[in-house]
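We include the pair:
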Amino acid sequence: MQKRDELSDVFEELSRQDLLDLHTHYEAVVKDRLDFCFQSLNFYIGLLVAILAATLTGLLSLKSGDTRLFVLLLGPLLTVILATLGYSNVKSLYPSLGNCLQY
């Protein structure tokens, strides 16, 4: 019972302005975290597009019998691996974005 009285004392000491300040601070922190998340997403997307573009350019410039084909086939494999790692990273670090990241 004593713990409940202590909590009610704490809540009684907060004014309306204190609550508004807390809300403003919380809103700024959430916005900063989302901005960082979107920067990470943009980095992963840019990296994946660059890998795919380089792979397609290399594949389209190959002649028959060229042995570089096997090296260029690592590009799509690397893209899938990085996409999976990036998605799991964002999903675990930003669980609040789980609804908008579902595919």
